[in-house]
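We close this part of the discussion by returning to an individual protein. Part of our work consisted of pairing the sequence of a single chain with a tokenised description of its backbone. No coordinates are needed to read the tokens, only the vocabulary itself. The amino acid sequence and the backbone structure tokens for this protein are reproduced below:
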Amino acid sequence: MRLSQPRIAPLQDDELTPEQAEALQPLRHDPMGVLNVFRTIAQAPGALHRFGQWGAYVLRHNSLPPRQREMVILRIGWLCKSGYEWAQHVEIGLNDGLLADEIERIKQGPDAGWDPADTALIRATDELHADQFIGEATWTELGRHFTDKQRMDLVFAVGNYTQISMFLNTFGVQLDEGLTLDPDLKAF
């Protein structure tokens, strides 16, 4: 975690304006509850509403298999040094088929003993993070394993979770109850 306290505090229910309460309402039925990230973004209720629409596509309607989608999200969270993003998606990744040792290998990058499809996904994530572009060799390798739509969804996921990591880190969103900060991310 980069900050030990929030710069922008998550709103509690008794602090919400009617517009903020309305923006948070769809999240009240989510099994994970109303997380600190959403309570923070609720300071800008219009942004939260649109963020929720796009986020639902990227997380729930993405054409990548869930395990591989989570690999991409975890890798970009790791590269962005987002303790919150990493902690949330470790749990989601485990539920979506990632193994604990695979989650640890995500930290190491594309050369950590992955199969060719997973290697291409992680390499593409690294390239997008470094240069906002996937090079021709990686794009071609992705095409051997994934459809054009899946390659688009890869870029959408990396872009979305880069943005999320930026505001989690900058706003100082703190971990929700029950989550544990990865020790490797404590120094940031």
